[in-house]
Amino acid sequence: MSKQPEKIISFDVYSGSELFMGVADAELPSIEFMSETLSGAGIAGELDSPTIGHTSNMSVKIKFRTATKHALELSAPKRHELTFRASTQARALSNGAALTTFPQKVMVAGTPKSVGLGKYESGKMQDVPVELACDYLKMWLDNKPVVEIDKFNMIHKVGETDYLQQVRKDLGREG
């Protein structure tokens, strides 16, 4: 069935895959490739050359509505694993544009860059910001993996293709 995604209906934040973390907004990591500018003999000018499978810093930002035990536990100077689960509204194009849903899931792992305590304002949300520097990212759409980046294990998959597999082989990490 062909679907036209429209919007996120709702999402939850979990520590690992079990513990509900609280009400929040989340800004998921951006994937930006490391690059160098090439110039010199054999090229007419300059060209930014992205490095295969190597990404710049990635971070996830979460803003909890109020301070919670679970939100503040993310200030522990250790690696944390978070899972975001969302329900996406879509139009089922082959079924008269009927509304349907499908799941999104994002797993990230990383260490804290910053954890704020928010603000106190009567009748307002406290807005407790948390930012983790991510070394791992994996996303599924409709239960199918679409991207996986594992910086320490040199994995950069898009769909079924691991763009660093040959690099690991070149380095003698795979047979």
Q: What's this, in brief?
A:
With 175 residues, the chain is mostly beta strands. Helix content is 6%, strand content 58%.
Question: In words, what does this structure look like?
Answer:
The chain has 175 residues and is mainly beta. The chain has one domain: Pnp Oxidase, Chain A (Roll). The chain is built from 2 helices and 12 strands. It has helices at residues 69-73, 165-170; strands at residues 3-15, 19-20, 24-27, 33-39, 46-55, 58-64, 80-92, 98-115, 128-141, 144-150, 155-158, 161-162. Strands 1, 2, 3, 6, 7, 8, 9, 10, 11 and 12 form a 10-stranded antiparallel beta sheet that branches. The protein is globular, with a radius of gyration of 20 Å. The protein starts with a strand and ends in a 5-residue tail after the last helix. The mean pLDDT is 92.
SSE layout and pairings?
Layout: E1 3-15, E2 19-20, E3 24-27, E4 33-39, E5 46-55, E6 58-64, H1 69-73, E7 80-92, E8 98-115, E9 128-141, E10 144-150, E11 155-158, E12 161-162, H2 165-170
Protein name: Phage tail protein
Pfam families: Phage_tube
The residue-averaged pLDDT reads: 92
Identify low-pLDDT runs: none
Spell the H/E element sequence.
EEEEEEHEEEEEEH
* Overall 3D shape: globular
Question: What is the strand tally?
Answer: 12
CATH architecture: Roll
Task: Supply the helix-strand structural class.
Answer: mainly beta
CATH topology: Pnp Oxidase, Chain A
**Any idea how many domains?**
1
Query: What's the helix count?
Result: 2
Tell me the name of the CATH class.
Mainly Beta
Portion in beta strands: over 45%
Distance between the termini: 40 Å
Rg over alpha carbons: 20 Å
The description of the largest β-sheet is: 10 strands, antiparallel
Helix content class: under 10%
Oligomer: single chain
Organism: Halodesulfovibrio aestuarii
Protein name: Phage tail protein
InterPro entries: Tail_tube
